[in-house]
Design brief:
About 50% of the residues lie in helices and about 10% in strands. The chain is α+β, with helices and mostly antiparallel strands and about 700 residues long. The structure holds adenosine-5'-diphosphate and magnesium ion (MG). Magnesium ion (MG) binds near residues 201, 279 and 281.
């Protein structure tokens, strides 16, 4: 019998929630905080002091000795620098724990060791973190002891964003302003704010930690760089939604407890398609908080895995030949009076506001498909996008049968009189109820799918921050809303104007809609005919950030300056080059020190066998043939290794930047693939006792 777990009590117990503020702050102070949270602005220094004291008292009651400004530099993960609440002792040597409003609101971490892409030279180290009042403070419980974490934005001395949060917050404000203009046109005078909501499904792999430690590629690159497929993969579809094994279940249970304490609404968990692959998803919330929470989800998965003797792999493609991991980013936009602008209602064909929003999103995604693609690219995702059961690198929208039909009618006649109904699903069993089915089936191959009352952006990589994809989504939709509002606000006959605008946008951007199989080869050709961009890799997507179109978009809405965009592009090239360099060096190391010596040991045994069998006067054809094959593959491996060593040494001596990144992509990655091939073939031939590290079968089937 399990003990009763009081989840209601546990939930958000480590979060300084509004409820706790209400309890602990004087009424006036609480009101001021709430107002700033909802409407923006700044706390007065006196108020900040009061809030800081209450926050510190709560943290200390929960065992905290330290606080940290918790931020999200452009490394894609989070950063923290702990300070104790300790102050100078008085004459009698007594020390009082303190935390001031100034310390709450502003921090000054040395910024020189974070990527800045040339925005800041190393001697200009000053960077500031500022409290993001819209995301609640929380206590992280690790071996360091409980630490009060204050979510912050991170900027340079000159005010440029050095993080993922600042542009996201800017994009949310831009989207809100433009969306409000639209809803006003439809007579909504109540709404003051529109917020993008995000629910991020997180996929991951779990393997045994001890086995992981035996593989340098997993340690340094987070994925396997060698490895022949196991005899069994995911072809039986027996892992997806399968019974959760005991060891994994115990891990999931602890993950949930930790996440609930942090106020993360961990809701759904299941086995994913590939062996050893799983998923966890929280309930959606404001984009900003969702981004922070997703970082906590990733951190928690890794930390709890360690406690269970497991290793959580967040890489987009840890194992070749089976599914990779993504992070489906579910996105919708809701007014503060509770209207989801993506809710079609029972009769979407008559819902003009919905159709306008849909037309704007079609326009946004079609106009900026390149940027959306870029926002979901990272080094690991290059292995996944377009790969085994992953959304293709071509951005398109799935609307489903019903909405696609509405769009077609609007495009052809300017009216949508009829509506395809979902109909009734007959189960054929008298004791099972018949039910009304959705008007739209699912399509798992689309990178950007409409799923009822939200869009699901599926390209995002599993290890990536969801900051960038949501910043881009908010920005491009804000632009489309703005252009629509500019026209409609001037219109003499609103009804005519909105009707014309919907028809125009849908006609012009209909090419972005694709309801077919996104994994099919034919789609690549069809997309090319439609003129849709197909950007296959991360390095090729970087340039999309600095096109005149992108600069105009991001500057117009104050989301990125041109300098910020250029710095981000630089960082992406650098990150790519560094990551591939680590992978190449790891492969070189494993080949030189592990694979080749192991194969030689095995070849030696074969050679001795040949000699001994012959001496015994028997037929040595089999060991001789095997020896020939193994030594031939060994020679191939050695040649490929030398080619990789050469490519790597040229690459690492190049000047940092675009050219170097492309060289890594074109030459080094190609040489890595060429080395992997004969090495994996050897793995299939060599006696398992000689193979120097755990195989795919050991890693994926033994947890
Ligand atoms: P799937 O069947 O797509 O795997 P899941 O239940 O695993 O669905 O995840 C769906 C995610 O979408 C959850 O995080 C859920 O909270 C989120 N979601 C649901 N409705 C909305 C919405 N209106 N806006 C944003 N996210 C939403
Ligand atoms: Mg799911």
């Amino acid at each position: 019998m399990s003990e009763f777990l009081d989840v209601e009590d546990l939930f958000a117990s480590k979060v300084f929630t509004l409820g706790k503020m209400k309890e602990r702050l004087p009424k006036g102070t609480y009101k001021e905080v709430k107002k700033v949270m909802e409407e923006g602005g700044e706390l007065t220094p006196a108020t900040a002091d009061v809030v800081a004291r209450a926050m510190k008292d709560w943290a200390v009651e929960n065992g905290a000795t330290h606080y940290t400004h918790w931020f999200q530099p452009l490394t894609g993960i989070t950063a923290e620098k702990h300070d104790a609440f300790v102050t100078n002792p008085d004459e009698e040597g007594r020390m009082i724990m303190e935390f001031s409003g100034k310390e709450l609101i502003k921090g000054e971490p040395d910024a020189s060791s974070f990527p800045s892409g040339g925005l800041r030279a190393t001697f200009e180290a000053r960077g500031y973190t500022t409290w993001d009042i819209t995301s609640p403070a929380f206590i992280k419980e690790t071996a360091t002891g409980p630490t009060l974490c204050i979510p912050t934005a991170f900027c340079s001395y000159t005010g440029e964003a050095l993080d993922k949060k600042t542009p996201l917050l800017r994009s949310m404000e831009a989207l809100s302003r433009q969306a409000i203009r639209l809803v006003r046109l439809f007579g909504n005078t109540e709404a003051k704010k529109v917020t993008p909501s995000v629910g991020a499904e997180q996929e991951y792999f779990l393997i045994d930690a001890k086995k992981a430690l035996q593989r340098e590629d997993i340690l340094f690159a987070g994925r396997t760089l060698f490895g022949a497929p196991a005899p069994k993969g995911q072809e039986m579809d027996d892992h997806y939604f399968g019974v959760i094994r005991e060891r994994v279940g115990a891990f999931m249970h602890d993950v949930n407890i930790e996440l609930w304490k942090l106020g993360v609404t961990s809701k759904t968990q299941h086995n994913e398609a590939a062996p050893a692959q799983h998923e966890v998803a929280p309930i959606y919330e404001s984009a900003n908080v969702a981004v922070d929470h997703n970082q906590l989800v990733m951190e928690t998965l890794k930390r709890v895995a360690g406690k269970h003797g497991l290793r959580c792999m967040l890489h987009e493609k840890p194992f070749a030949g089976v599914n990779g991991s993504g992070k489906h980013n579910n996105w919708s936009i809701t007014t503060d009076n509770g209207i989801n602008l993506l809710e079609p209602g029972q009769t979407p064909n008559e819902n003009i506001q919905f159709l306008l929003v849909l037309a704007c999103i079609m326009k946004a995604v079609d106009t900026h498909a390149d940027l959306l693609r870029q926002s979901a690219s990272n080094v690991g995702n290059d292995q996944r996008l377009g790969g085994y059961e992953a959304p293709p690198a071509i951005i398109s929208i799935f609307l489903g049968e019903q909405l696609e039909d509405v769009v077609s009618q609007l495009v052809v006649t300017g009216k949508a009189d009829s509506l395809k109904e979902g109909g009734v699903l007959h189960t054929g069993v008298s004791t099972l109820p018949d039910f009304v089915k959705d008007a739209t089936d699912r399509n798992r191959t689309s990178p950007f799918a409409f799923t009822g009352n939200k869009f699901e952006f599926r390209s995002v990589g599993s290890s990536d921050s969801i900051g960038s994809p949501n910043t881009t989504l908010n920005a491009i939709v804000a632009e489309a809303f703005c252009e629509a509002a500019d026209r409609l606000e001037q219109a003499e006959d609103f009804e005519m104007a909105v009707h014309d605008l919907i028809k125009e946008y849908m006609t012009e951007h209909q090419r972005i809609i694709f309801n077919g199989n996104g994994y099919a080869k034919e789609w690549v050709e069809e997309a090319a005919r439609r003129g849709l961009p197909n950007i296959p890799s991360m390095v090729e997507s970087v340039e999309t950030l600095t096109t005149p179109k992108a600069i105009r978009l991001f500057e117009k809405f104050g989301i990125f300056t041109e300098a910020e965009l250029r710095s981000r592009a630089e960082i992406l090239y650098e990150t790519y080059a560094k990551s591939v360099n680590i992978e190449a060096l790891t492969m070189i190391d494993m080949a030189n020190k592990q694979i080749i010596p192991a194969v030689m040991r095995y070849a030696n045994v074969l050679a001795e066998t040949v000699i001994k069998v012959k001496e015994a006067g028997a037929n040595a054809a089999v060991p001789a043939k095997l020896l020939d094959t193994v030594t031939a593959k060994l020679a191939e491996t050695k040649d490929a290794l030398e080619a990789l060593e050469n490519a790597e040494s040229v690459a690492s001596s190049m000047k940092q930047g675009k050219e170097q990144a492309f060289f890594y992509h074109d030459k080094v990655v190609t040489a890595m693939n060429a080395l992997r091939k004969p090495a994996d073939e050897l793995e299939k031939l060599v006696d398992k006792n000689y193979w120097p590290f755990p195989t795919y079968a050991d890693l994926m089937f033994e947890v």
